[in-house]
Amino acid sequence: MKIETREEFLKFFSFLSEAQESKLERGMERVQLEGGQWMVAHAAHRCEGDVCCIHNPTDHHMREWPQHWRDDAGKMERICPHGIGHPDPDDMTFQLSGIGVEKRWIGIHGCDGCCSPSKEDFCECGHCDMTDQELERGCFVPKED
């Protein structure tokens, strides 16, 4: 969809606002993610007692990094200090658990190695060595020539 005029923009923005309101009417709620981004998500009581990247994240090594919801891909990322978006470990667990939609590709990302809890999982240049753990997480860094 190409938006060329102010009128088209306002119409599209109105459509998005109506979609957000529809979600709120169905029992979802506005939440502010770690890092400041706002989104509409399931209500907190829906995941009470369970791990949830929004309401009850685990104490993983990326826990303090800002969250970023990728609406285009339906996944949560954590932004490392270098500005790279890495899959949120709790969201990946959910996505691959069978509770969410099974889509292994969801973990593929430009990786600088920060998402590995141990730098030993990476080669000396910082690129993924594509161990089984890396393949499971979906890390992908093109090797330099």
Structure description:
By secondary structure, this protein is of the alpha+beta class. The protein has one domain. Strands 3-4-5 form a three-stranded antiparallel beta sheet. The radius of gyration is 18 Å and the shape is globular.
Which structural class do the helices and strands define? alpha+beta
Tally of individual domains: 1
How much helix is in the residues? 10-25%
Poorly predicted spans:
120-130, 132-136, 140-145
Query: Strand-and-helix sequence, N→C?
Result: HEEEEEHEHE
Task: Please state the CA-atom Rg, rounded to the nearest Å.
Answer: 18 Å
Per DSSP E runs of 2 or more residues, the count of β-strands stands at 7
Oligomer: single chain
Q: Numbering strands along the chain, what is their spatial order in the largest sheet?
A: 3-4-5
* Approximate shape: globular
Number of helices: 3
Specify the biggest β-sheet.
Answer: 3 strands, antiparallel
List the helices and strands and how they pair.
Elements: H1 6-25, E1 29-32, E2 38-41, E3 67-70, E4 75-79, E5 85-87, H2 89-96, E6 109-110, H3 132-137, E7 139-140
Parallel strand pairs: 6-7
Antiparallel strand pairs: 1-2, 3-4, 4-5
